[in-house]
Every structure is written in C-alpha cells, then in structure tokens.
Amino acid sequence: MHSDTLDVIVIGGGVTGLAAAVAIAELGHSVAIFERRPRAGMETSTHNSGVIHGGMYYPTGSLKAQLCVEGAARLYEFCRKRDVWHERCGKLIVAARPEDATRLEKLCQLGTTNGVHGLELVDEAFIKRREPHVAGVAALWSPNTGRLDAAMLVNALRRTAEAAGAMFVANAHVEAGELTGEGFQIRTAQETAAARVIVNAAGLYADEISEMLGGETFTIYPVRGEYAQLKRSLSGWVNGLVYPLPDHSGHSLGVHLTKAPDGSVLLGPTARYQSDKEDYENERLPLEAFVQPARALLPAVTLEDLTYGGSGIRPKLAPPDQPFADFMIRRDARQPRLVQASGIESPGLTACLAVGARVAALVEETLN
Q1: Are residues 351 and 206 in the same domain?
Q2: Residues 118 and 206 in one domain
Q3: How many whole angstroms separate alpha carbon 135 and alpha carbon 124?
Q4: Distance of CA 313 to the CA centre of its chain
Q5: Mean pLDDT across 94-121
Q6: Are 250 and 312 part of one and the same domain?
Q7: Does residue 251 have a pLDDT over 80?
Q8: Sorting pLDDT into bands at 50, 70 and 90, what band is 1?
C-alpha cells in the first residue's frame, strides 16, 4: 500500500495520535496513522469521563501542567469550530470537612501558579446554589473546566487529519519493525511500510512499540478505572462536575460525579493496577464499593440508586509506589528518529492538541 517512504508514520489512532497527525500534516509532511483497532479512539480516548480539565492538579513546570492549560484553550476552540458537543460547565472540588480547607487553598495556589484562570474558593452556600444535592463545607470552583463528547472529538480529529492529507489505516496492528538507512520499516499482517520518522502514540502498547523499534525501555502500567451510574430518574441530582479532593496516592483525582453528554450521571473512575491491557470486565467491583464514595458527595444515595457503568484503562508510566510520572514527549534517546508520545493518561484528552503541536515540532526538528 505504501510503496514510497513516508515522512511520518504515527502508531496509534487515539486522540494523541490523531492530534499529532493533524499538526504534522498541516506542516506539509506525508503522514499515515496506523491503528490496531477497526476504528479510531476505541481504547483510552473514549473510555474516560470526557472532562476538559483546568490544570490545577499537576506539578508546576511539568508537561501535564503546561499542556493541560494550553490544551484546554485549544480544545474549546477546536470543538467550537468543528461542532463537537462541549460545555464549559465548571467544576466544584469539594471539601467534606473544615480541616480539608487547607488542601483546597493549596490546590488553588497550585492551579493559579500553573496559569489556570478564575479559580475561586467558595463556601457551602455557593455549593448549594450550583449543586443542591451535594454536601460540602467548602469547595474550589473552576469555572473553565468543562466536558465534551469524546467520540465526537475522535471523529472530528480524524476528519481534520484526513482533510490535511493524512491517511488513516485501520486494523493495522504493527507486528514488527526495524531501523533502515533512512528511518524505519514496519510490518502489519497486511503490508509493509516505511517512514523517515515514527511517532509512538500507541497508548497502552507504547512500551512494546518502543522496544520493537529499538527505542528506550520503559513500562506502561495498565490501570483500570470503573464507573457506576445514577439511575436515570435521579440524573437531576447533579448539574455538572463534582469532585472530591484528590486521593493521597497521586494515582487518582478521586471518584467523582460527571454529567455525561446524554444526561446520565457517572460516578468514578476508580483506579486499580492490573497486568492485562485489554481486561475491562473481569472481577469488576461490586456496586456496594461505590456507595461510600457516592455518599461523600451525595449523602442521599443508596445502593438501589446505582447501576453499573463502563470502564477504561489508563496507560500509566508511574508504578504503584510512585505518585507522579509526567508525559513522555521527546525524541527517543536511543533512536532519535523515533518520537515518543507515551504515558499520555489524564489530562491527555484535554491536552491532546497541545501534545500534537509539541510532537509535530519534534518531527519537524527530526526531519530537518
């Protein structure tokens, strides 16, 4: 199919790979996206809360902080222009006890330092005005946090990439790859293709692709997040986005409430390290496990009010005993014609366009 050497092959057709392909193609380079699934974005990109994050959680100066703030601005504009459903609904991060107010203040300071606009410490009366069914003594209000339809975003990114000249190749599981004189040659079950530069945006499989191509050795840890839902008759209990303070492990922003585009209310995600990168369903948590986290935000919830939701798997670079690992976005130390866009977990959806722009700059540097 690809008899000539392409400038770039992007491995992975989630939001990271698609956004990178958009930015690369718009620079005038020939690019193909190889996606192992039948459609774009079938894994992490569409198995999440669909939140456009503000950027107040991440260490100052980290890529996660920088690209979340930049990416949110880019994403709102992209969604507006491409008719992707979205809403700048705002978010409450709620403190259940007076002694937690100090943690809210630190989060507010961190977010402001990171460039997040409009953060405000608010009282119980403010919470009740916006979310009458939510309990809390104080909260951090983030007016620029929002939500979107992740599937619509994926489709819009693919259309934009193809309009810019990128090729999307579905069912293209990369089985082998090798360095050549002018770049890489990769093989799938259907074909062989060559490119001067490879972008590794393979999500849960980025460590395997890096090893296959002779790049840096690292580990992607699959972390499953599970959701419950409020029964549809209770959807009116939540108007937007309501979060607890993040847990102390650093691996989760906490089991939160998200009003989904279809009007349903999601409760989750949880966070559990596992070995299988494709196991979304085995040994799912019982609904009983969601009752206590739900009541921390919605005291009236009972077990009978909950039903099962979906699940997703995050591609983490941080092992269980490490609270934080940043995105890996750089030219590979071993193979400089391999550009890594790996470990792109939350806030990867928010940051995707900023990540794509950064990847495209690295590609340009490599090709030149």
Answers
A1: yes
A2: no
A3: 8
A4: 10
A5: 96
A6: yes
A7: no
A8: very low
pLDDT class of 249 with cuts at 50, 70, 90? low
Residue 33 falls inside a structural domain: yes
pLDDT at 93 over 80: yes
pLDDT digits (tens, 9 = 90+) for 314-346: 999 999 999 999 999 999 999 999 999 999 999
Do 205 and 249 belong to one domain? no
Angle at CA 114, nearest 5°, toward 270 and 78? 75
Kindly state whether residues 257 and 358 are assigned to the same domain. Answer: no
| Rounded Cα distance, 78 and 57, in Å | 24
Residues 22/165, Cβ–Cβ less than 8 Å? no
* pLDDT, tens digit, 9 for 90 and up, residues 177-191: 999 988 999 999 999
Tell me the residue range of the domain where 139 lies.
88-145+221-316
Write out the two tokens for 91: 């978010």
Tokens of 228: 């419950």
* 294 & 311 share domain: yes
Instruction: Indicate if 156 and 290 belong to the same structural domain.
Output: no
Phi/psi at 72 (5° precision): -60, -45
In a domain, 57, yes or no: no
- Beta-carbon contacts of 63 under 8 Å, excluding residues fewer than 6 positions away, are 326, 327, 329
| pLDDT of 247 | 76
**Which pair of structure tokens corresponds to residue 263?**
């009007």
Which residues are registered as beta bridge partners of 29?
Answer: none
Could you tell me which residues come within 8 angstroms of residue 145 by beta carbon, excluding any fewer than 6 positions away? 51, 52, 53, 54, 88, 89, 90, 91, 241
CA distance 302 to 43: 31
Assigned domain for 176 exists:
yes
